[in-house]
Amino acid sequence: MSATYSFDRRCCAFPTRAAVAALHALTFLHGCTLDGAGGTTASSTRAGTSTDSTAGDNTSTSMDGTSGTGSSLDLTSTSTTTEPSTGSESTGTLDPVCGNGLIEGDETCDDGNMTPGDGCQECAKDSIVFVSSVYYQGFALGGLYGADQRCRSLAGNAGLPNPLTYKAWLSSSKVSASERLLNSKGRYLLVNGLVVAQNWEALTSGILENPLIVDENSQTKDDPVWTGTLAEGVAAPGTKFCNDWEDSGSLEFSGVGNSSSFDSTWSYFDNGPCAAEARLYCFEQ
Q1: How is residue 198 annotated by DSSP?
Q2: How many CB atoms are located within 10 Å of the residue 193 CB?
Q3: 244-282 as b/e, with b when 16 or more CB fall inside 10 Å?
Q4: Could you report the per-residue pLDDT of 109-128, keeping only the tens digit for each?
Q5: What is the pLDDT of residues 17-65, one digit of tens each?
Q6: Three-state secondary structure along 131-171?
Q7: Separation of alpha carbons 227 and 158, rounded Å
Q8: How many angstroms separate the CA atoms of 148 and 156, rounded?
Q9: How much is the pTM?
Q10: Beta partners for residue 167, in sequence order
């Protein structure tokens, strides 16, 4: 390796013969220091890094910023390795992967395939829906909680899977059916296996593939159904919800649907007196 050294004649003396002889015995890496006859220390500049020279006291500043006698070079190099980041490192969690055979995130199933009609669609399982075999007065449901409990009891007595997950298709003055129920990507099936809708979007589109006319025992029930809900899943405007389906609502009116309908009237076609009897729609979650 060769290096070029420049001396400032205004402040530095040329080296003596002895210093020149000593020079040939040195190996220079990044710079050098020559002691002249008059005690003058010369400095070299390379790649934009310089060392300061001081005449008289033979004290110089090293490249690492430390003062001492003579000059020194800090030849320690520091390397930094940057590891590639992954999505899990930046977010702390892994996004669910539909089709990997693992149930993750909001998935309700993952059978590792894309086979249609096998009970698991877009990592969402089929949901059973039925119209209740029992009539109820609208003011005597015991609120949304009481209606849900009635659906669960009917599902359990009929031996349906996951009976404790069922909820009634009901809205109240405080919450709509679409906010209470799972908006599933999976299919909605009757107890007899007929498809009502391919997913939540289809269910709330206003057109059903088959009417929701079969009860938990697979018997046909063509009757009015308490809903208080439009086909889109939102609360029906103008309805009183039987005072939120409680005892004090016996003189009120609430929205009802028709279980034999394919169109939007399956969920709402009119208001009925809360003292009357109608059925419930029950949805597995």
Answers
A1: S
A2: 10
A3: bbbeebeebbbbbbbbebbebebbbbebbebebebbbbb
A4: 677 777 777 778 777 899 99
A5: 444 344 344 333 334 333 433 443 333 333 333 334 333 333 333 334 3
A6: ECCCCEEHHHCCHHHHHHHHHHHHHHHCCCCCHHHCEECCC
A7: 22
A8: 12
A9: 0.65
A10: 283
pLDDT tens digits for range 69-109: 343 334 343 444 444 444 444 455 678 888 777 877 777 76
Dihedral over Cα of 175, 177, 178, 180: its sign: positive
Joined together, the tokens standing for residue 127 give: 């949901």
Residue 159, token pair as written in the block: 């031996």
**Strand 136-137 relative to strand 127-131: parallel, antiparallel, unpaired?**
unpaired
Query: SS3 of 9, please?
Result: coil
C-alpha span between 152 and 165 (Å, rounded): 7
66 close to 56: Cβ distance less than 8 angstroms? no
Query: Where are the alpha helices (H) located in 24-159, listed in sequence order?
Result: 87-91, 143-157
Q: What is the C-alpha separation between 130 and 219, in angstroms, rounded?
A: 10
Average pLDDT for 231-255: 93
pLDDT greater than 80 at residue 141: yes
**Mind listing the domains of the chain with CATH numbers?**
1-75 (no CATH), 120-283 (3.10.100.10)
CA–CA separation, 267 and 136 (whole Å)? 17
Sign of the C-alpha dihedral computed for residues 96, 102, 105 and 107 taken in this order? positive
